[in-house]
Amino acid sequence: MYRYPLVIMAILISGCGVELAGTAAVSGVSKAQEAQQAQQNLQRFQQKLDAANQTSQQQRDAAEGAAGQ
């Protein structure tokens, strides 16, 4: 008589484990995508920073050339 509730509880508990594993897998994929997006954002930022530095250097060079004339 006590076996049926124990079997039902075991089934319910094992179902939670499967759901937990599925949730962890989805969470892992989501974190990997976030990391990839962060890496892409970092690369875009670095490119913009490099372009700004290059523009700034060109402006300094032009100012120095004008001051030397």
Compile the SSE list and pairings:
Elements: H1 3-67
Kindly list the characteristics that best describe this protein.
69 residues; mainly alpha
> What's the number of helices?
1
Euclidean distance between termini CA atoms: 103 Å
Annotation, overall tally of beta strands: 0
Oligomer description: single chain
Q: Would you tell me the structural class of the helices and strands? A: mainly alpha
Global outline: rod-shaped
Q: Compute the gyration radius: what is it?
A: 30 Å
**Helix amount, in percent?**
over 70%
Tell me the fraction of residues in β-strands, as a range. Answer: under 5%
Please mark out the parts with pLDDT under 50 across 5 or more consecutive residues, or reply none: none
SSE string, helix = H, strand = E?
A: H
Characterize the largest beta sheet: strand count, sense, and whether it forms a barrel: none
Average residue-wise pLDDT = 83
Describe the structure.
By secondary structure, this protein is an all-alpha fold. The protein has one helix spanning 3-67. The protein is 94% helix and 0% strand. The relative contact order is 0.05.
